[in-house]
Each structure stands twice: as structure tokens, then as C-alpha cells.
Amino acid sequence: MDRKRIYLCLAHMSGKEQDFIKEAFDTNWVVPLGPNVNAFEKSLQDFLIENGKLKIENEGKQVVALSAGTAALHLGLILLGVQAGDEVICQSFTFCASANPVTYLGATAVFVDSEEDTWNMNPVLLEEAIRDRIAKTGREPKAIIPVHLYGMPAKMDEICAVAEKYGIPVLEDAAEALGSEYKGQKCGTFGKFGALSFNGNKMITTSGGGALIVPDEKAKKAAMFYATQAREPYPYYQHEKIGYNYRMSNICAGIGLGQMTVLEEHVAHHRHVHELYEQAFANVKGIELKSNPDERFNANYWLCTILIDKEETGVDCEELRVFLDRKGIETRPLWKPMHLQPVFAGSPCYVDGTSEKLFEKGLCIPAGPCVTDEDVAYIVSEIKSCICK
Ligand SMILES: *Cc1c(COP(=O)(O)O)cnc(C)c1O
Question: Which member of 158, 190, 231, 245 has the lowest number of beta carbons within 10 Å of its beta carbon?
């Protein structure tokens, strides 16, 4: 069979990336600052804030381009004053990069399980966790990191209400959610800080990169200070804080600028692919496609995801994954919850079995810009042929 292998989410170039990179070379801006970085930040800002339907109080938000989404989360925690010995509440059902930066700082990640509607942080468990941490440690956790997993917005009204009640700032992990909206507002702009990723397989790529969405100009200055080795304003190199080398290269930002010209197209394509799956799986017993729970949610469907009911289909998700792999279709188990990861074995967790069940039953299926209508038809027919055997 000489069908091309179908991947989950391949990078897809607009063609304009190389023009921006060439200009950077021609003008010798081959450094981690420059016109492409500034223009990329402005373009993201326009997309997230000016074009989104933001509340007035959020209008001062700014974007800082960085070397990775993980770096953005790390800097966000630093700007929130997280230090060794502190606790930070994380979503358990996520990629490790949501929680690792907490550990970089010597703080402890406290894991909270997901709810069924969005697969994201359960606001009821969140409040239980906060109360219990206060009872056990005598102080509030320093931050809350909800995630918009697979591009599905978390229940931000409920999460922010709990956060406000206890005076704990929110750092949104929107790494998978560029273009997703909750009640018409772009994901990443709800928390005090928000993190984006432009890794190779995300909604857009800079070959590797990220951004921190910050509340104002002052926070932007602070983020840039820490992202460029915390250099004090002296003629010589004076350092009073520990800094990082986290700025985005002007070359990578050139790729990002090219990608911004196709971002809306990418988001529309992911949603189109989801719609095709939705129609195709409507009458398939035992396969449940994840969709927006109600009209507040407008996912970008970065990856489409399904739950497989073994009783109904006769196969479990690993059998289906291996079968599809042989047919040239890449799929992947859902994220293994952090509270089940050996590396986080000692971390407190507040779980009710939801993410464990999702991990057991779920698969990511291809949804990227290179997935055609014909690919979707092929994927669906192979899934059907596997479960009907
Ligand atoms: C990709 C990802 C990150 C990290 O982004 P990088 O750019 O790869 O460092 C963080 N959180 C989640 C949920 C992600 O999917």
C-alpha cells in the first residue's frame, strides 16, 4: 500500500516564512531580538486582544515572544513570585510541561483532576484542594495553572471565581489553544498570565518557541528582564537577580510572522476536520468524539480526540492504535495524568478517577492542516473496519 502516512498534526508553511527570514539575514538581525520579534509580538497581540472580544480591563495586555512555551510558564511563575517551598495547583490531565516549571523553582505541584465536559480542571475539586492545602499548610497555594487541553477551553468563569475567592492568581496554559475561545474571548487572556507554544506540532510553529501574555507594559518589561539574563541598567554587566536566556530568535520570529498569515486558516481547517469526524461518527456506537459541551466553548480542535468503549466496539484503545498504525495512521493515547507519573509520585493530588478513565479509553486522531477530507474518510473507514471485526 503506498498511501502517505497520516500524522496527528504536521507543521504547514504559508510560503512567506522564508521572506521574513531572508530579510533578517539581509539586514543582519540574526539575534534574539529584532524587527521580526517585535512584529510577531504585535501580530499575536492583535489576534488575541484587539480582534478578540475582550473586557475593558484586559485591554492593556501585551505579548512577549520566548524560546518555548515551557519558558513562558516558567517566567509566568517567576513573575508571580513563586519560590522554593511554595505550592502551585496544576491540572493533572496535561503534558508534563504544564507542571515541570513548578519543580524548576523548588515549589511543589498539587494536582487537581478534570471534569467530564471539557476534560480540564474541575472547579469543584479545585476549591476542595485549596481548602485542604490551607488547612494542611496554613497558607494559600501561590498560583493556579489550568490548561485548555487539546484546544478545548477550560471552564474559566468557574475557575476564575474560585481563584478570586481565595486571592490566588491564574497562569493559563494555552499552549494547545491558540485561536480557541471561551464566551468569545481568546484563550490565554483570562488569567493574570497566559502561555502559548509554537512547537513544531502546535497550531502554528516557529520551529520551537512560545510566548507569555502579560497584563501590562510593566509586566512586559519584567518578563523581558528575566528572559535576557536579568541584566541591570549599568554600562557593565551588573546582576542582582538570577535570569534566563529565554528570548525568541529573530529568525524563529520570522517563521512565526509567516505562520500568522495562515493562523485563521489553520484554526478553520482543524474545526472543519472535527466537523467531518462528527458527521462520520454520529451513528457509530462505542466511539465518542470530543466536542464543545455548549455554546460558551469554541475549541480550535488542535487534536481531535475519541473515547473508545470496549464493551460496544470489542477493542480497546491500544488495539485500535496498533491497528491504525499498521494502516499508516498516527494516533496517540491521551496524556497520562501527572498524578500517575513516577516523577510526581510525592505530589499531593485531588482526583476522582476522571482523568484516569480518559487515559484508559482515549486516543488523539489526526487533525492538522495537512489532513484532507479524503484522509478523514480513510481514517473513519479504518476505525470502523477495526471495531466491526
Ligand atoms: C506543548 C505544550 C507545552 C510546552 O510548550 P513548548 O513550546 O513545547 O515548551 C506546555 N503545555 C502544554 C499543555 C503543551 O501541550
Answer: 245
pTM over 0.90: yes
Choose one of 262, 296, 316: the last residue of a domain.
Answer: 262
Cell numbers standing for residue 299: 475549541
Cα 218 to Cα 288: distance, rounded to the nearest angstrom: 46
Bridge-based pairing state of the strands 87-91 and 143-145: parallel
Same domain, 234 and 278: no
Q: In angstroms, what is the span from residue 188 Cα to ligand 1's centroid?
A: 13
CATH of the domain at 112: 3.40.640.10
Distance from Cα 309 to the centre of ligand 1, integer Å: 29
Binding site membership of 68 for ligand 1 (Cβ less than 6 Å): yes
- 270 & 357 share domain: yes
Q: Tell me the CA–centroid distance for residue 214 and ligand 1, in Å.
A: 18
Distance CA 337, CA 359 (A): 7
Q: What is the pLDDT of residue 32?
A: 82
Residue after which a domain boundary falls, among 235, 262, 289: 262
- Predicted confidence at residue 52, as pLDDT, reads 59
Report H helices in the chain: 17-26, 35-45, 69-79, 100-104, 123-137, 156-165, 217-227, 250-260, 263-281, 310-313, 317-326, 354-361, 373-387
Ligand 1 atom with the smallest distance to the CA of 98 is: 11
Number of domains observed in the structure of the chain? 2
Residue-wise pLDDT tens digits, 25-49 = 999 888 888 899 999 999 999 999 8
Q: Which residue has the higher pLDDT, 90 or 14?
A: 90
Whole-number Å distance between alpha carbons of 317 and 325: 12
Residue 264 CB neighbour total at 10 angstroms: 12
For ligand 1, atom 2, the nearest C-alpha belongs to 175
Active site residues: 202
DSSP 8-class letter at 232: -
pLDDT band of 55, cuts 50, 70, 90: low
pLDDT tens digits for 207-221?
999 999 999 999 999
